[in-house]
Amino acid sequence: xxxxxxxxxxxxxxxxxxxxxxxxxxxxxxxxxxxxxxxxxxxxxxxxxxxxxxxxxxxxxxxxxxxxxxxxxxxxxxxxxxxxxxxxxxxxxxxxxxxxxxxxxxxxxxxxxxxxxxxxxxxxxxxxxxxxxxxxxxxxxxxxxxxxxxxxxxxxxxxxxxxxxxxxxxxxxxxxxxxxxxxxxxxxxxxxxxxxxxxxxxxxxxxxxxxxxxxxxxxxxxxxxxxxxxxxxxxxxxxxxxxxxxxxxxxxxxxxxxxxxxxxxxxxxxxxxxxxxxxxxxxxxxxxxxx
Length: 291
Hints:
Number of helices: 12
């Protein structure tokens, strides 16, 4: 250890300290292990001259520990043509640090995009159920339970299990029976539901890509050529997101009147007339509110 310290002290004052260490290694004055350790110690001692990681010593130490295998391979890959061994090692340290920083930035971007996309999904879900009553509020018995039942089945796609528990007593239907009706309706609409699910997954992925590319553009402010490439990716991702959202909006999530009639075991005409009466009632209420 004293020998290494002495060698390191002598070479640190020369203009090409690592070149001097390499000369001693090639002359057999240093073992491979000692040579690698001297390089490591020299870089660690002079970490401020690299101006990396805001000159954070602890982070530089962690970085060098990860870089150690690369420095070991550099001893074998160095050729005595062109730049000095000092310049060769320093270029490896700087370029590898930039790769590490970009990798960490990519990790933060990916993490941010994932949470941002998840927040968007939660927002969409909350918008779908925002019309429901508070979970603690009980529902009073309704005057026309058949109308409410048919309307409930017509809107089955947005009906939660909690709402079923609260609405069943109000319309005089057993909770288990109402759940069975909704399950049968979902089975009849399974093909369309699967399509909606796939489109939602695609929408989530495209939203994730949009957020990721936007964050990458912010991180690549010093790289104009790469920014143009990422900007193209972002435009295509935004276009795909808009197209998928439009396709989702065009899908009718309501079951057909015939499917509702099949679930209830009543004629389709009864379902038609009931829903028509509800529409007329809602229209009268709206007209009265406008007056």
